[in-house]
What we know:
The chain is an all-alpha fold. The chain is built from 6 helices and no strands. It has helices at about 1-25, 30-50, 60-90, 90-100, 100-110, 120-135. The mean pLDDT is about 95.
Amino acid sequence: MWFLFALLSAVFAALTSILAKVGIEGVxxxxxxAVRTVVVVxxxxxxxxxxxxxGGLSAISRKSWLFLILxxxxxxxxxxxxxxxxxxxxxxxxxxxxxxSVVITLILAFVFLHERFTARSLIGCVLIGAxxxxxxx
Length: 137
């Protein structure tokens, strides 16, 4: 089931890039990010209430709060940079560079989460990196 959700995530991320590139025309990138963020917040809280998950707020630990807040700050910084890059660059070049996050995530997961880094992971990272260079050069 995780694969289906991951695949849907990729499809929606692709739509996000195309829709954003069209929508950002003539709009300040920070303002566009703020509008998008409001929509995401409303959608996320709508799902929380739809699934009756709001009761879990009090069970979130201090550590989880800290890391969720840090993750939110990283997401915000990512979105601001992404929208600015998308506004001034071509989507066909911005998106592949953005997807280098896959390689960076694998490295960070190895270093900080002590996840396994296999030969297959290394080959995948090299291929993603090479593919990104090929697409943007």
